[in-house]
Amino acid sequence: EIVLTQSPGTLSLSPGERATLSCRASQSLSSIYLAWYQQKPGQAPRLLIYGISSRATGIPDRFSGSGSGTDFTLTISRLEPEDFAVYFCHQYGNSQTFGQGTKVEI
Amino acid sequence: EVQLVESGGGLVQPGGSLRLSCAASGFTFSSHWMSWVRQAPGKGLEWVANINQDGSGKYFVDSVKGRFTISRDNSKNSVYLQMNSLRAEDTAVYYCARKYSGSDYWGQGTLVTVSS
Question: Does B99 sit within 8 Å of A47, measured CB to CB?
């Protein structure tokens, strides 16, 4: 099983600042099946990024994904008030795993 | 508009069974893999199971193998999760999701509580 470890656990930032979230895999992802989600309290997760760096439909361009091998990053270039939430990375082969999440708080 | 609507959650005793359903609309259901993902209260996301387009391919997280089964009925645009021998640690919100470019659409979830 591929374990995904996200860091930091909590990121305390202000609106307008840049957020950099990390996701490290326990083994190299041979495919590009790495995604990122945003989740707000009481809501289902929302797909932000798939295939490491492709933005999902309707996702603003302040969200970007990058990385390869075992190290992946979600960057939010300028935080908007609605971006304060929990973010999960996800590897989605036939068997899937999620990271434990990073909370971005004000 | 793509919609996924889960049902069937509730309170069940340890060792009991429950069957979750997910009704899909707004897309060609028979062309897509589907997944179940759960989230224990206050915790992160945990993938539970996948099923391919015709139901011939099924994958499960180790913790539910032998206890949960996944199935689908393409004539009813529905996917199911049969959960047997339930344990307290299965308590979670269970989400149905379309497996495409990650999981691009999610239902609102249904709560399963395993408690005596």
Answer: no
